[in-house]
Fold these 2 entries.
Entry 1:
Amino acid sequence: MWGLSGTLTEQHFWKLSNLIDLDIDSNSFHLDVSSNWTPPFQLTYLFMGSCHIGPTFPAWLQSQKNLQYLDLSNASISSSIPNWFWNISSNLEYLILSHNQLQGQLPNSNIGKFLPNLYFLSFSGNGIIGTIPDSVGHLTSLKVIDFSSNNLIGSIPSTINNCSSLTILDLGNNNLSGMIPKSLDQLQLLKSLHLNHNKLSGELPSSLRNLTGLDILDLSYNNLSGQIPAWIGTAFPNLVILSLTSNMFSGRLPFLLSNLSSLHVLDLAQNNLMGEIPVTLVKLKAMAEDHNMSISSLYDNLSSSRYEERLIVITKGLILEYTITLSLVVSIDLSDNNLSGEFPEGITKLFGLVFLNLSMNHIIGRIPESISKLRQLSSLDLSSNKLFGSIPSSMSLLSSLGYLNLSNNNFSDKIPFIGQMSTFTESAFAGNPNLCGAPLIIKCQDEGTDKSVEDKIDSGFVDQWFYLSIGLGFAVGILVPYFVLAMRRSWCDAYFDFVDKIVKWLLFRKRVTYARNHAQRK
């Protein structure tokens, strides 16, 4: 059951002397026990994630000598980890204390001696300070190390290469410095390497090419320099995510990147890369598929470990973190570099693309009509380049497009403001002085000409009907009586007799009036 709440006291447990498995994970229970409480049970499995156990570290754990699995994640613990905890149980295999407010440093004692069977270790999302101790290398059974999102400093210890069973190493979001250890190449089983958001410097060590099983390589937001080595395209045949964004890499994009046939995410933004975008990117086969495999399937063998892959993606003008929905991300981000050359038409053959960002470069040429083939495209940012020509009308067919930025280019002519294109505001097209039409306030010249011609046509049409109606009325007034009188002789005689009488009466009235006036003058 999930989502339950309430308070648990010592009385709820005092008869449970045979309890070995306590799983109340993903609930909101509040544990209210005394600081000297000794439980009547000996647990093997304890899962209390999201329950309120803190603020102090639970002292009653000292009595639990048989623990193998312990999960106290998101448990509102804000104290430091006591020294006795590391000697809690030699049987401990699974330890997760993530997303608390834990303080202090990690121990530098030989914890491998006390925890020889530990295979999963996570302290992510806490406030742990200090360096990563060399003693971590003594935990030789570890498969997962997650120290992400803390305040760790110093360099990555070379002893970590002793953890030869590691499949996931996540040290991201800390303040680690120095160079990436060359000795990491001894982690032959490594699938996921996160060193992002640190202060690491230097070039990528060539020894990393020996990590042939890598699926995810995230080195983003560091101070790494040099060229992106060509061997990245050949060393990692199963690579799904490659993120090197926000470093100081220079030189040209390696053509061999196209060999990464499993790649879903290519993020090289915010570097000093130059030259043309390789036409060989069209060979990124996984991006050409409409349906992509779930990244979670990479870790079926660790399904019970509860490690959650995550990635920072800048898209739709926002900085987003993807976790559960990471498998839906198919992205190319080469923005904020010094790339040049024409728009790479081959990209339009990557039918599975969801996000495409080539902004803030020096790319020239036209947007090809074939861009309409990217039916999965949700975000397209080509702003701050030197693109020119008309915006293709075929873009109106991109029914999934929710974000568009074509600003600060040299586009011209009328915006095809139809279909999906009619959903975007003026900001999507700003900074193109030769663009016109909705949603811009600038009207196209042909729109004014068409209006003038239309008014003239309408005016001429009205005039023609006006004169035609006058002519028809005149003709009807003359011809109709003529034909009627011509057809009936008796009507004709009666008509002219009537006319004669009227004329005679008018003449008579005129004579009478004249006679009266003449008499008055006399």
Entry 2:
Amino acid sequence: MAESLLSFLVDQLGSIPTQQATQQLNLVTGVDEAVNNLTSNLHAIKAELEDAEKRQVNESAVKHWLAELKDVSYDIDNVLDEWNTAILKRQIEQEGTGVTDAPPLKKVRSSILSSCNWVRQIVSRHDIALKIEEVDKRLAVIANQRSRYKFTWERSNHEQTRNITTSVIDESEVFAREEDKQTLKDMLLCESSETTCALRIISIVGMGGIGKTTLSRLAYNDAQVKSHFEKRIWVCVSDPFEEERISLEILESLIGEKPNLVGKNNIQEKICEVVSGVKILLVLDDVWTEDSSQWEQLKGCLKTSSPGSRILLTTRKKEVAMSMGSRSTTDMFFLGELSEDKCWSLFSHLAIFERTREERQNLEGIGRKIVERCKGLPLAVKVLGGLLRFRETKEQWQSILESKMWEIEEVEKGVFPPLLLSYYDLSPALRRCFSYCAIFPKDFEIEKDKLIKLWMAQGFVKERGNKGMEIIGEEYFNTLAMRSFFQDLKKFGNNDIYKCKMHDIVHDFAQLLTEKECSLVEFNDEQQ
């Protein structure tokens, strides 16, 4: 993420001499040298930044060094904001006094700028000069510290090396979970006297990235399941367990519109009335709470539903399933890792299905070793399949197999290495576009066109040749979707995507990348 910021700062610093000449706003004597120093140090740091960003995962000292670099970069950004504001005010003044030879008004970027200039309308030139000299000294210290870490200079090939004949592939492990789907369907549709006398709560239990949500969705959308239940409701719970929000979403799904009700009790009384005598299937995805008291009142209002109704929840912990009311022997479905053969089928479908027979034979051996590293986790397989889809040579595949990213120690160790490998294979602009998505809440339905406009507003997307920003933004979105950074793709009839979501682990990964740099967006009731 820091790489694209530094690139932008270098561009802005390089434009200052031209702006001084055209706007007749000169730096204080001696500050020109500070600007040159800033530019030189940014270039030097940028050359080794690829290695630093990869090493921060396992080396806390490098992570701290990068954090200091980002801090001073944002301070440079703030000073550049002042310079650009000065330019803007200068132009307004010229227009107000009838000056006609002023250059066209340029956009003032408010999110990522930085460095140097001054004007009396903002602060005195002397104060601005002091700010420049201060950030210059701070950056010089950080630049000099590079030697202690012995960073290496890396030339990264972020361009796609393989021609893509399809726009976006929204692959999942559908074909790999058919047996599990049938088992889950049997649990949902069973009509024995033992299972119909009370509201049955079925839990899918498994580690992150194993495919719990995918399996739930397969069953939820199955034609037989659709016809069996009169009402189907899907709610993403996540952490914390917000009973009123969950209740409101359940009621909205049941009645098909946003209810005009306030207060948890009023909402749940209405739910009790609406589900009375109705056979329902309620999916509670990604449940974390082990406190049964948070759930009992809501569960109570669902008990008026018809016999044969089901609640299906997904969780990573058996204790959560038990606290929610699942009996360990009959109501829990422990979802295991995919077999090696099924992992290979999923991976090869993504990574080598368009290749020639000779290419497939050349890559299969190393490909199977990479799949072994995924430890049966479908999400890891999909991410790496999306990455290697763009890599032509055996040497490129070998570099993925031998990457130090596999050595990281994080909570989601099985999934984070593939995510990191795919993330660092992206261009700096694409990295910023992806990490920006950390601002959205978990399970938020992202509108593609709005997301692209947000990227454009942040300055992440620029025109290239005869391609406008909207087209470039569309390409960025499709690339991230092909890498499995986006999922649950909703498409128009012409196969164009218009909405998507992020897997909860991918969302966690984006937040890890941007910790201390962003806050979650608070959306109103319409989630605009």
